[in-house]
Amino acid sequence: MGIVDYDSLYNHVSIIKTVDYQNRIQALRDSTKLINQKIHNEYSDLVETCFWNEELISEWNYGLTSLEKQMNMILSEIDQLRQEQDSIILIYTKSIINKFCVENQIDILIQKDLTFDYSKDIKSDYTQDIIKLISE
């Protein structure tokens, strides 16, 4: 029986999607840096003026809350992009495994539902076990 070339499979899918995801994630990281810088600048300005009146503090807190919300949205989007990329790789892997099973007449594996835990990475032990099983 043939052997599933895991590295080739992973690299193939990664090449398809990684550039786009990396660009989007980098843009989000740049945004978080800008937000952090803005928070730092605002805070420094406030401290330097030593103008601790209620109105100024309230205004600054409102701005900080708004920036925190933006930051959380960015972090959430980064997580979503990573999950999306992992799902694409896993779906592709599942189709490769199914094709391999059909070509090699492995009826038992075809009858079983090859369901992946999408929270795990492609290199997880679970996925490796499946690849090892069909490679024997």
How would you describe the overall organization of this protein?
The chain is mainly α and 136 residues long. The protein has one domain (10-135). 81% of the residues lie in helices and 0% in strands. It contains 4 helices and no strands. Helix 1 runs antiparallel to helix 2. The longest helix has 50 residues, at 54-103. The radius of gyration is 24 Å and the shape is rod-shaped. It starts with 5 loop residues before the first helix and ends with a helix.
Average pLDDT works out at 61
Q: What is the approximate shape? A: rod-shaped
Structural class estimated from helices and strands: mainly alpha
**Distance separating the two termini:** 7 Å
Percentage of residues in DSSP E strands: under 5%
Number of strands: 0
Total count of domains? 1
What is the H/E string? Answer: HHHH
**Which segments are poorly predicted (pLDDT under 50) over 5 or more consecutive residues?**
1-6, 108-124
Q: Helix count?
A: 4
Topology diagram in text:
Layout: H1 6-49, H2 54-103, H3 107-111, H4 125-135
Helix pairs in contact: 1-2
